[in-house]
Amino acid sequence: MFGDRTPRARAAGDAAMMLPSVRARRAVAVLLGVVVFLVVGLTVDPALGLLSGIAAQAGVFALGGVLLFWPMTAERTRAHARRDDFKPLLEETIVVLEALVSLAAIITVLLIHDQHDRKPAVVAGLLAIFMSWAMLHLMYAVRYAYLYYRHPVGGIDFNSDDPPSYRDFFYFSYNLGMAYQVSDTNVSSTEIRAVVLRHTLLSYAFGTVILAMTVNIVAGIATN
């Protein structure tokens, strides 16, 4: 499929190593989130600032990752997924904990926020949850790419003779995030199945919260 010693493979590997690391991208996202929190929190409302900061950091991390990974070819995807500085279990743990803490903070803030002026906080809360959801599935897309391109290569059948790029792993990951199950891709690896199970459970938790918040908002509008 790929030859590690071919010029194209070496070029793809060199290009992958030049990309910003996940730690650098997360640091930038967190820094921006803190700035948004301080600006909005000090000038408007602390609760709204917290929700806006969570939405900003998750959104920057998720959108930045999509813009970075989407154009990659299969060769660059393979080289990037196998880079030496990638610690998949650590990255999964950090992003999952970050998403769950954000979810808990969002729910808490919305519950204790002033009931007479909730609309801005509700909008910011929904945006924060959606961006945290997008960040979570981006991380799992990268995780699946890493697991797929480990030796031996495989574990997910994309029903194509062409090797998969990050676009294929986005399809796989975000489909799980929305449907809580695989669609037209068969999983043949026990390790990948274990990750899929964790992924779908987290997706269900996020989906439940989003549905509950939506019902609450509609009920509040109808009451008023």
Radius of gyration: 19 Å
Question: What is the makeup of the main sheet?
Answer: 2 strands, antiparallel
Number of beta strands = 2
Strand percentage lies at under 5%
* Contiguous uncertain segments of 5+ residues: 9-16
Order of helices and strands: HHHHHHEHEH
Judged by helices, strands and strand pairing, the structural class is mainly alpha
Oligomeric state: single chain
Through-space gap between termini:
62 Å
Number of domains: 1
Biggest sheet strand order reads 1-2
Mean pLDDT, nearest integer?
A: 84
What gross morphology would you assign? globular
Proportion of residues in helical segments: over 70%
Walk me through what this model shows:
75% of the residues lie in helices and 2% in strands. The chain is mainly alpha-helical. The chain has one domain. A two-stranded antiparallel ribbon has the order 1-2. α1 crosses α4, α3 packs parallel to α6 and α6 packs antiparallel against α8. The longest helix is centred in the last third of the chain and has 34 residues. It comes from Actinomadura macrotermitis. InterPro entries: DUF1345 (IPR009781). This is DUF1345 domain-containing protein. Keywords: Membrane, Transmembrane, Transmembrane helix.
Offer a few descriptive terms.
224 residues; globular; mainly alpha; 8 helices
In brief:
The protein has 224 residues and is mostly helical.
Task: Give the helices and strands, then pairings.
Layout: H1 7-18, H2 22-43, H3 46-69, H4 74-81, H5 88-112, H6 119-148, E1 156-157, H7 166-179, E2 186-187, H8 190-223
Antiparallel strand pairs: 1-2
Helix pairs in contact: 1-4, 2-3, 3-5, 3-6, 4-6, 5-6, 6-7, 6-8, 7-8
